[in-house]
Amino acid sequence: MGHTKSNRDQLVLRVRRIAGQIGAVEKAIAQDAPCETILHQVAGVRGAVLGLMDELVEEHVREHVARPGLTDAQRAQGADELVAAIRRYSK
After folding, report:
1. What CATH fold (topology level) applies to the domain 2-89?
2. Residue closest to 85 by CA, chosen among 63, 52, 53
3. Cα Rg for the chain, rounded, in angstroms?
4. pLDDT under 70: residue ranges of the chain
5. DSSP code for 6
């Protein structure tokens, strides 16, 4: 996705924060933290991943489906790519 180049640094920072959250979950499990603590951390990770996915889906739609000047074939390809990603994500 070429459009991710424009906000690559922000996306990388988000992914690093998510990796940090995952590390905190691992540490909590290893240290026998209370289950409610771990559940809250996992919920935070899920929210962060969902937020990242939302941002990527929005950018994909804007760049590969709704951008003026695209051909019908390019729009169809962009839509097909999005549908495939959503199907994989929702499993």
Report:
1. Methane Monooxygenase Hydroxylase; Chain G, domain 1 (1.20.58)
2. 53
3. 17
4. 1-4
5. G
Q: pLDDT (tens digit, 9 = 90+) per residue, 17-42? A: 999 999 999 999 999 999 999 999 99
- Report the length, in residues, of the chain: 91
- In contact, 79 and 65? CB cutoff 8 Å: yes
Q: 75: buried, middle or exposed (CB in 10 Å: 19+, 13-18, 0-12)?
A: middle
| Residue listed under structure tokens 């935070």 | 44
Predicted model pTM:
0.83
Helix/strand/coil for 28: helix
Report how far residue 51's alpha carbon sits from residue 57's, in angstroms, rounded to the nearest whole number. 10
Look up tokens 């929210």; give the residue. 47
Q: By the 8 A CB rule, do 64 and 77 touch? A: yes
Backbone angles phi, psi at 31, to 5 degrees: -95, 15
